[in-house]
Design a protein that fits this description.
This protein is α+β, with helices and mostly antiparallel strands and 76 residues long. It has a single domain, classed as 2-Layer Sandwich (GMP Synthetase, Chain A, domain 3), CATH 3.30.300.20. The protein is built from three helices and three strands. A three-stranded mixed β-sheet has the order 1-2-3. The protein starts with a helix and ends with a strand. The model has no long low-confidence stretch (mean pLDDT 92).
Amino acid sequence: MKELVEYMVKSLVDNPEHVQISELEGEQSVVYEVRVAPEDMGKIIGKQGRIAKAMRTIVKAACVKSGKKAMVEILE
């Protein structure tokens, strides 16, 4: 799943070498923390948060089989 998040984020940004994805796993949930270069922040969030919302929807749908909740957090 981390690879999916990383692929989506790196496809959107101008500086893919600055992308960092952290995976924090709990008993019933997984949190993916995304860090990108400051100039790429707008590309990840999108207008009115549409791209971020779409990424979260894809990750939630992909995690249904595992039975865990998945969240994507975009950090500065």
